[in-house]
Amino acid sequence: MDDDEESHTRHLNLIKAELAKSTPDMDRAKELMCRTFSRRRTWLLEEQPPIQEVLAKYPLLKRLTIVSSELDYVIAEENCREKFIDNWQLYQPAIIAYSNAHKNKPAALKDALRDIDGDAEAVSLTALRCAGYLLTTKTRKKEEKGKPSQENEAADDIPFLMKEIMRGEKVEDVCTDVNPMIIRVIDADEDVDPQYAIAIEKQTILTCCHLQSAIFALFAVHYVFDIEYHPKAKDFYLLVEEKMFGIKGGGVTPRTVNYVNVVTSMETYLDQN
User: Fold this and answer.
1) pLDDT in tens, 54-63
2) CA atoms of 273 and 267, how far apart (whole Å)
3) For the chain, how many helices (H) and strands (E)?
């Protein structure tokens, strides 16, 4: 770890030199990011610089592999990304089963379940849609009162978690939320697989090949860049904290009655299966 500003600056210059190569040595770059972690973390927590300033100083944080390593350092865990994916796959069927068991499903929940019999990516998307419906404070109360919602303008958006755009559209033109969001980029040709990215402050900061990695990255950037959760999505992020990573966040992110009820029901399903 860097103990002084001179060492830190030298290591930052070595990172820039590595990235300037036609084929950067990413193991070396990751090692240098580890060496600069302590001072970077102190700077982030104490000065709370804008995201674009952080990325200008540490451009490697635009790469998912580096963000994953950074999260390992922040929460003092190894292999966070793999741990998340294993646990997300464990909870996916529980999220979907709990949603599917609802009697008199509202239209939004029926829509969330429309791809329940699809491929692995479709199942992940179904689980995220259902979790978004169950664990975010959004249109549910308005629906129950028969009032129209203004928060879910597009059928495939997940309020506070994911925005779907067409290939060629600019994130800053269609994304209205400055909080971290998954951007799902779809093509007019249905045979072309969607691509995923994470946007913060209406700017794409990193890309992902698969939805599960994008969900992981959405959680990770909050810790890595010290960003507060969207107040209407805290239950969702608490699920990730507690059940995907074993982080006991009750003192920081209090459990709501809704969260306890939903998660208890999910875990009953897991115990029975």
Assistant:
1) 999 999 999 9
2) 10
3) 13, 4
